Amino acid sequence: MKILYGAFAAVLVVVAVVFALSNRQAVDFGFWPLPYVAAIPVYAFGLGVFAAGFLCGGFFVWLRAVGARGRARIATRRADRLQQEVTSLQQRLDATEKDAEQKAAIVEISNEPLPKIASVR
């Protein structure tokens, strides 16, 4: 995937350089309601539009990822809460098993027959 990305980026750089070298003449750009006119090279305008499109695309991808990041944050909190609950239940289970072992030992001792004591008369 990295090779494909690198090849695509290299092609874009080559196209941008060829475009810039081929379109060095200045063009007057103005916006109708404003009285200002700017003479800029055609390649600067083209590359500026390309850069603006790139930034807008990145912004929209970031906006789409907001929902995924929110869901991931909620899932992380839920996983942490469930892990705490598992830990608590494991501690309770360990304590219950220890208590059961102690009670079993007491029952085992109480079930032993009493030693017979010889009576002296």
Question: What are the defining features of this structure?
Answer:
single chain, mainly alpha, 2 helices
| Proportion in β-strands | 5-15%
Main sheet overview: 2 strands, antiparallel
Structural class: mainly alpha
Helix tally equals: 2
The Cα radius of gyration reads: 39 Å
Q: How many beta-strand elements?
A: 2
Low-pLDDT runs of 5+ residues are none
From the N-terminal CA to the C-terminal CA, the straight-line distance is 100 Å
For the residues shown, what is the average pLDDT? 88
Shape: rod-shaped
List the secondary-structure elements in sequence, H or E: HEEH
Describe the strand arrangement of the main beta sheet, using strand numbers.
1-2
Number of separate domains: 1
| Amount of helix | over 70%
Give a short overview.
This protein has about 120 residues and is mainly alpha-helical. It has helices at about 1-20, 40-110; strands at about 25-30, 35-40.
Molecular structure report:
The chain has a two-stranded antiparallel ribbon. It is mainly alpha-helical and 121 residues long. The protein starts with a helix and ends in an 11-residue tail after the last helix. It is rod-shaped. Helices cover 74% and strands 8% of the residues. The chain has one domain (2-100). The longest helix is centred in the middle third of the chain and has 69 residues, at 42-110. Strand 1 (26-30) and strand 2 (37-41) form a beta hairpin. It has helices at 2-22, 42-110; strands at 26-30, 37-41.
